Automatic annotation (TrEMBL):
Family statement drawn from the similarity comment of this UniProt entry: Belongs to the peptidase S54 family.
Domain Peptidase S54 rhomboid: 43-186
Keywords: Hydrolase, Protease
Any one Gene Ontology cellular component term annotated for this protein: membrane
Molecular functions (GO terms): serine-type endopeptidase activity
Keyword ATP-binding: no
A Gene Ontology BP annotation from the UniProt entry: proteolysis
Pfam families registered for this protein in UniProt: Rhomboid (PF01694)
Family matches, as InterPro entries: Peptidase_S54_rhomboid_dom, Rhomboid_protease_S54
Protein name: Rhomboid family intramembrane serine protease
Superkingdom of origin organism: Bacteria
Length: 218
C-alpha cells in the first residue's frame, strides 16, 4: 500500500517526521519554531508555517500523518501536485490565522502540529470524492469519508474548548475552512457537481462563524 503513495505526500510526511524528531530531542528548537501568539504578533510570522511541521509526540505525529496518507493521495490524484501543495500550505496558514484570531488575547498560547493542513486536505478530498469509504485501524467496517471529516472537526471543537494538550485544535477548524474554500476556488464546478456535499460541509463552518466566539464562554 505504501508503494501507491504520491511522492509529494511522501515528501511532506518525511519532512514532518524529521522536523518533529528534531523537536522531540531539542526543546530550544521546538520553542523557537512553535506557534505562539505573542511571538507571532511581535513579528515572527515564520512560526505560522514552521509550527505545522512540529508535533508534541509520536502519537500526535502518527495520527496526523496517517490522516494525510489516507486523504492526500485522493487530492493529488484528482487535482495534481501543484493544487495539492496550494491546498496543503494554504490550509496550514488558514489554521494558524484562525488560531491567532481565536487566541489573540492569550499571548502565551502556543501549539504545534500539521492539524490545520491535514484538516484542509481532509475537507478537500471529501469535496472531490464524496463517495469515499475508509477502512480505519481497529474498525472492521467501512466509514464514509464525510463521517470521518465531521467527526474530526467535532473532536477539534471539543479540544479547542477544553484546551487539550499542546495541540492546535483551533487550527483544525481554520485549516478545514481553508481547505474547503481553496478547493472550491480551484474547482468551482464542485458547486454544481457535488452540491449536497458542499452544503453539508459548509454547515459546521457557518455555525463556527456564527457561534465560534461563544465557545470560550461554554
Amino acid at each position: 500500500m505504501i508503494g501507491n503513495i504520491n511522492q509529494a505526500v511522501l515528501l511532506i510526511i518525511i519532512a514532518n517526521v524529521l522536523v518533529s524528531m528534531k523537536g522531540f530531542n531539542d526543546y530550544s528548537f521546538l520553542d523557537k519554531y512553535k506557534f505562539q501568539v505573542g511571538r507571532v504578533l511581535a513579528g515572527e510570522k515564520i512560526r505560522t508555517l514552521t509550527s505545522g511541521f512540529l508535533h508534541v509526540d509520536w502519537l500526535h505525529l502518527g495520527f496526523n500523518m496517517y490522516a494525510l496518507y489516507l486523504f492526500g493521495n485522493i487530492v493529488t490524484t484528482i487535482l495534481g501536485i501543484p493544487e495539492f501543495l496550494i491546498i496543503y500550505f494554504g490550509s496550514l496558514l488558514a489554521g494558524s490565522l484562525y488560531s491567532l484570531k481565536y487566541h489573540k488575547d492569550e499571548p502565551y498560547y502556543s501549539a504545534v502540529g500539521a492539524s490545520g493542513a491535514v484538516s484542509g486536505i481532509i475537507y478537500s478530498s471529501i469535496l472531490l470524492y464524496p463517495g469515499m469509504n475508509l477502512y480505519l485501524l481497529f474498525i472492521p467496517i467501512p466509514i464514509p469519508g464525510y463521517v470521518f471529516g465531521v467527526g474530526y472537526l467535532l473532536y477539534s471543537i471539543y479540544g479547542m474548548k477544553k484546551q487539550l494538550g499542546n495541540v492546535g485544535h483551533s487550527a483544525h477548524l481554520g485549516g478545514a475552512i481553508g481547505g474547503f474554500a481553496i478547493t472550491l476556488l480551484l474547482n468551482p464546478i464542485l458547486f454544481t457537481a457535488n452540491k449536497l456535499m458542499v452544503i453539508l460541509l459548509a454547515i459546521p463552518i457557518i455555525l463556527l462563524f456564527l457561534f465560534g466566539d461563544k465557545l470560550k464562554d461554554l
